[in-house]
Amino acid sequence: MVSVIIPTLWKPKGFLQRLEAISKNPNVGEIVLIDNSNLHVDTSHIAKVRHIRENRNTYVIPAWNKGVRLSKYDKLLIVNDDVETDWSIITDVYSEVTEEKGLIGAGPSCWQSKKNIPELHPISTMPNCYACCFFIHKNSYTEIPEMKIHYGDNWIFDVIKAKGKTNYEIINWDMGGESEQTSRLEEFDSIKHEDLKVYNRLQATQSVSTNTCIFTTHTTLTHSHAEYSLKALLTLQDADVVWDYFVVYNTQEQNLPNKDIIELIKKYDTKNYIKQVLIFPYSPEDNKKNLLQDIRNWYDVGVSLGLQKTPGKILWLKSDYCVSNNFNEVFLQQSSTNTIWSLPTLGAKQKIEYSTVLSKLNMPSFSVIDLETYYRGGDNPNNQLPFDEVSPNGEMDYHPSINYVSHNYVYDFNLHVITNDTLEVGRQLAYHPQVFDMNSTWGGPHNLFYGLKEAKVHFSGEYKAYGIHMFHEIISENRLEDRGDVRKLHLGEKY
After folding, report:
1. How far is the C-alpha of 436 from the C-alpha of 424, rounded, in Å?
2. Ranges of H-type helices in 290-361
3. Quick one: CA dihedral 66, 71, 75, 79, positive or negative?
4. Distances, alpha carbon 390 to alpha carbons 352, 385, 402, in Å
5. Per residue, what are the HEC states of 420-447?
6. Contact at 8 Å (CB) between 289 and 251?
7. Would you place residue 289 in the very low, low, confident or very high pLDDT band (cuts 50, 70, 90)?
8. How far is residue 139's CA from residue 100's CA, in Å, rounded to a whole number?
9. 212-488 is classed in which CATH architecture?
10. Helices (H), 122-222
11. Which of 18, 124, 274, 306 has minimal CB crowding within 10 Å?
């Protein structure tokens, strides 16, 4: 049976009739009515109603908490008093309300749907109007602290997700009513502001990870590079990762406007991974055009967002890299404390089309060597991969038979995930004059990694997930010399 929990101030019309309709569902064991008014409405004629008269407004979130505490059954439906629907939805969803699942709430499409064929879809971010009507197993519910009206649903959504459970939305179900009629009253505006403060504070103190991607593009990286990189991260993944912050770090807005990158993000964020997109205010006048300045700025971004105070991880992703399809899955398994993860990479040669790269992103693990891949070596913190170069056929890496050149040099600057708690020590190193030479194009990133190692930051040896570097030229107004490695300069075989 299901315990249906409904807070009310008796504002919506026809609420008594809705109670009667709910009570007739055979899977409803009780209706726990938390009456926050002093109107003394008679509900004694309605079967299954347990009328809890508060005689004052205790507000909706404390009413949820009390309703859950008082409920007799493990399967719960928490619903607004203004929702109108065919209550057979309770029977349709009943078997899906299990301890293994998280929240099951009405998706935004339900408010435009004319169908009554409900489907459950897993989601990584909470949509609008989700908490108007949601199911949850009692053992999955965690009492929501301090908040009165708003953001309690956001908090419990995040907590459940942090526990490794999946939340779901219902689609193809016709719903209507006077959505959130009570909570939108002007008299509750001040409470909304206070609830937001509480929610932000709780996020900073609870063990809910904050994940950030700093997405970087610079001169010589094209619109196509950005598109392929974003598609790999946001569309092709085998698992869901929510990006609380997605920072666009663009040093070439004159060639690739930020608005174009935003459009690509909207295009490929089909699973609503991203909660908030931020634009780094890059100014050529205030920043040196080199990698060292970029790294300093990335650390500054993390600290300015207060990420060092929260559990979580930061992906430093340049738009010339595509992450493998299993990246999110491995990302979720990586430690969130005192760790840097340098992903192994494969460099796609200039001749390789993106369609070919797509198939390479789907490998179950990083491939040191195969028929088309030359291995340049690595640092290997777990000692499970070879240190020295390996050729699949005895030919050099620039030979036409080779399409990719792989490596896992963890102290080279490529593709990295850092934990939030390493931000402060990393930032100190980035601003140390003996670590970074700001007059050099490259001189410093290696020193940063060695400094992190000396600071006892753990270097992950994980190599299941990987990245593929998409070729681009590097000569520009900021860099007049080509790649220093002569093996990378063969016509048609550059990488």
Report:
1. 16
2. 291-304, 327-333, 354-360
3. negative
4. 21, 11, 12
5. HHHHHHHHHHHCCCCCCCCCCCCCCHHH
6. yes
7. confident
8. 10
9. Alpha-Beta Complex (3.90)
10. 152-162, 189-205
11. 306
**If you search the block for the tokens 């493990």, which residue do you land on?**
74
List the domain boundaries for the chain: 2-205, 212-488
The two structure tokens encoding residue 161: 């997700």
Rg (CA), the chain: 27
Distance in angstroms (rounded) separating the CA atoms of residues 344 and 341: 9
Joined tokens for residue 274? 């991203």
**Helices and strands per DSSP (H, E), number in the chain:** 12, 22
Residue % of the chain over a pLDDT of 90: 58
Model confidence pLDDT, tens digit, residues 426-437: 999 999 887 777
For 100, phi then psi, to 5°, come to -75, -25
User: Tokens in use for 33?
Assistant: 């009515």
pLDDT surpassing 70 at residue 444:
no
Identity of the residue numbered 460: S
Quick one: average pLDDT of 107-115? 78
Average pLDDT, stretch 50-74? 93
Tokens found for residue 430: 């980035």
Q: Does domain 2-205 have CATH number 3.30.450.30?
A: no
CB 176 within 8 A of CB 84: yes
CA dihedral of 285, 288, 289, 293, whole degrees rounded to 10: -130
Strand runs labelled E in 193-338: 212-217, 245-250, 277-279, 313-318, 321-323
- Residue 482 has a pLDDT of 74
Q: How far is CA 233 from CA 90, 237, 350, 437, in A?
A: 36, 6, 22, 32
Q: What is the pLDDT of residue 127?
A: 79
Backbone conformation region of residue 283, classed left if phi is above 0, alpha if psi is from -120 to 50, else beta: beta
8 A C-beta contact, residue 115 and residue 172: yes
What contacts 19, CB < 8 A, 6 or more positions away?
A: 6, 31, 33, 43, 46, 49
The model's pTM? 0.61
pLDDT at 185 over 60: no
Check residues 477 and 221 and name the one with the higher pLDDT: 221
Phi, psi angles (nearest 5°) of residue 42: -85, 120
Among residues 229, 115, 126, 103, which one has the least CA distance to residue 171?
115
**pLDDT over 70 percentage in the chain:** 94
Q: How far apart are the first and last CA of the chain?
A: 62
| pLDDT tens, position by position, 227-278 | 999 999 999 998 778 898 999 999 999 999 999 999 999 999 987 788 889 9
